[in-house]
Amino acid sequence: MIQLEMSHWIDICSVDELVPNAGICALVNHKQIAIFYIPKMDQLFAIDNFDPFSNTNVLSRGMIGDLNGEPMVASPMYKHHFSLITGKCFEESSVVNDIYEIRVFNDYVKINISKA
Q: Which residues pair with 61 in a beta bridge?
């Protein structure tokens, strides 16, 4: 049985509400988080929804795929690519979005936005 420190984990939605191969946006503690479910990898990813190049919250609407085997999201604005693992922009490595721990527990998607 998986034991989680529940004080840091916030319910986002049920697993049934995820959209395969697409993003959803969740407002968590006044912060927009883009959440992606990639069934082929059987993985969830969470990254800031904010696109620093266009100064808009749009990454949840971006297209997902991979660059050199690394899962990424392409911003719908200026098409910058962000790693879903590190948050780093592929075109401008000095730009990094925050990423968050995310997992499924008891059929609910939970996110941990606390910083270590």
A: none
